[in-house]
């Protein structure tokens, strides 16, 4: 069977890639070796930039309807009250995004929404169809699937941390297993804490996060178990005892739902492209669940890749070179930042733990960290360096800023499928990509340099 794009893996990254292929008019097959979708809820937070991508894909409203926005995060830097309440809703400084919040939405339900959207565009996931091996030449990729063979013009490996695509391409993942154990449990609680606020307790006994879930009264416990090497069995009394011991809070856990554990590992693949095959999501980068960035980074990889493949098919191949340069740079920054944050949050020794607790109290109370928790974690400030596909002019490499103050959004003028040229009120023009990154800003349309013009064949 032949297709334009073969997508391996139907997690959030692969589903996003498949939807984007159909929106761009490319034929697609999406295969997954599982017999059906995994039931565990896994990632829980959808960030603002991801919601913007979901909006372009026509699925933001449905995903918003299955989740609840966080009203605030309460941080207890030394696990003792009083906590510092950091508002994350409308009163926080979110700038010009349409989605000024962290949205709590279980990964499994996000995947179901994406799969429905894929179906509405005429696509489907082929479950029980694992990739066994692949090879490629200059014009196509040949894949050996469990149920037969497939030739594709392009292949995207969205097949998770133990990626077969990555292995078949001979790409190394510089992966470090920290041996640090985290347990996760979704529980109903009786302690009367607001349903839409998260809590972070940084105790020397271990980091404890209590994250709101969409069902009223239900929270996700994420707890670091520093000295354990075997995952314990998790029930309501285990959760209550752990939280009481570390925070003094009587949680009153009951109706335990999904539970799981993760041994932390972090790393990044050496490359994200080999010829006509690409890596995206966990196949290319791995880090701890602290900060809830994994699902978001994967969706944005896929959202940032497929329009470039489509542009190449339509005669503007220059964009494709920027995929690896941009996304590996962002992935490297993300893996380093999350790894550092996880280390600081899980410090055990008294002196560094107490020092960082003091610094965190001051930084959070004075508002120094507030922007980190909104725009930065919302992935709205991911600046790209000048390089392939980005020029060296004001705003270049940044998300298109919104110069209007009256509620209008310049973003709304950006074509959701391909790069656009947007005229500014003062007469300058900006070239903006489908993912709202500014390619360059010029005094007039005739001043757009040939290198950038050649990328616009298709716009
Ligand atoms: C227990 C747990 C808790 C987590 N909690 C959080 C959290 O709180 N916040 C957060 O941001 N992230 C969290 N993560 C990470 C997050 O779930 C991932 O970052 C996210 O799932 C990545 O999506 P993906 O589509 O790239 O890969 P995956 O979701 O791993 O999907 C890969 C898919 O590829 C399929 N596949 C694999 N090999 C093949 C093959 N050879 N052929 C065909 N198909 C194949 C798999 O069956 C799977 O469906 C958690 C992960 C786990 C395991």
CATH class of the largest domain: Alpha Beta
Helix residue percentage: 25-40%
Give the rounded overall mean pLDDT: 91
Termini separation (Å)?
31 Å
Number of helical segments with 4 or more residues: 11
CATH architecture of the largest domain: 3-Layer(bba) Sandwich
Structural class: alpha+beta
Number of strands: 22
Kindly report the oligomeric state of this protein. Answer: single chain
Q: The CATH topology of the largest domain is what? A: FAD/NAD(P)-binding domain
Considering the protein shown, what is the CATH homologous superfamily of the largest domain? Answer: FAD/NAD(P)-binding domain
* C-alpha geometry: globular
Sketch the major β-sheet.
Answer: 8 strands, mixed
Distinct small-molecule ligands in the complex? flavin-adenine dinucleotide
| Rg, alpha carbons | 22 Å
Enumerate the spans where pLDDT stays under 50 for 5 or more consecutive residues: none
Into how many domains do the coordinates divide? 3
Strand content range? 25-35%
Please outline the helices and strands.
Blueprint: E1 2-8, H1 12-23, E2 28-32, E3 45-46, H2 48-57, H3 60-66, E4 68-69, E5 72-76, E6 84-87, E7 103-104, H4 107-120, E8 125-127, E9 131-136, E10 141-145, E11 148-157, H5 164-168, E12 173-188, E13 197-203, E14 206-212, E15 218-225, H6 236-247, E16 259-269, E17 273-274, E18 277-279, E19 285-286, H7 294-313, H8 321-345, H9 350-366, H10 370-376, E20 420-423, E21 429-432, E22 438-442, H11 450-453
């Amino acid at each position: 069977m032949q297709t334009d794009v073969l997508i391996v893996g139907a997690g959030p990254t692969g589903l996003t890639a498949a939807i984007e292929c159909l929106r761009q008019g490319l034929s697609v097959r999406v295969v997954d070796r599982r017999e059906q979708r995994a039931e565990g809820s896994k990632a829980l937070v959808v960030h603002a930039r991801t919601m913007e991508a979901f909006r372009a894909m026509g699925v933001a409203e449905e995903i918003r309807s299955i989740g609840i926005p966080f009203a605030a995060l309460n941080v207890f830097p030394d696990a003792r009250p009083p906590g510092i309440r950091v508002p994350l809703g409308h009163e926080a400084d979110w700038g010009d995004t349409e989605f000024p919040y962290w949205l709590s939405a279980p990964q499994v339900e996000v995947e179901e929404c994406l799969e429905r959207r894929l179906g509405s565009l005429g696509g489907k996931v082929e479950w029980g169809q694992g990739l066994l091996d692949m090879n490629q030449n200059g014009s196509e990729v040949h894949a050996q699937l469990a149920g037969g063979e497939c030739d594709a013009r392009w292949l995207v490996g969205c097949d998770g941390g133990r990626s077969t695509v990555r292995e078949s391409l001979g790409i190394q993942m510089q992966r470090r297993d920290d041996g640090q154990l985290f347990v996760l449990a979704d529980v109903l609680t009786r302690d009367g804490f607001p349903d839409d606020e998260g809590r972070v307790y940084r105790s020397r006994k271990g980091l404890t996060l209590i994250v709101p879930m969409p069902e009223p009264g239900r929270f996700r416990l994420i707890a670091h178990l520093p000295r354990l090497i075997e995952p314990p069995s998790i029930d309501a009394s285990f959760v209550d005892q752990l939280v009481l011991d570390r925070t003094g809070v009587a949680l009153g856990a009951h109706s335990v739902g999904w539970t799981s554990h993760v041994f932390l590992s972090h790393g990044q693949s050496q490359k994200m492209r080999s010829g006509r095959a690409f890596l995206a999501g966990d196949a290319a980068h791995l880090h701890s669940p602290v900060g809830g960035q994994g699902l978001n980074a994967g969706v944005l990889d896929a959202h940032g890749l497929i329009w470039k493949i489509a542009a190449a098919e339509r005669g503007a191949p220059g964009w494709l070179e920027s995929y690896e340069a941009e996304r590996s740079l962002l992935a490297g920054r993300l893996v380093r930042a999350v790894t550092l944050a996880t280390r600081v949050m899980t410090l055990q020794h008294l002196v560094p733990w107490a020092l960082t607790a003091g610094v965190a109290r001051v930084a959070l109370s004075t508002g120094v960290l507030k922007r980190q928790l909104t725009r930065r974690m919302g992935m709205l400030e991911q600046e790209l360096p000048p390089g392939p596909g980005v020029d060296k002019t004001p705003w270049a490499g940044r998300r298109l800023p919104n110069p209007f103050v009256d509620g209008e959004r310049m973003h709304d003028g950006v074509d959701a499928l391909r790069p656009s040229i947007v005229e500014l009120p003062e007469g300058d023009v900006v070239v903006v990509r489908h993912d709202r990154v500014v390619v360059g800003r010029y005094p007039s349309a005739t001043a757009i340099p040939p290198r950038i013009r050649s990328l616009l064949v298709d716009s």
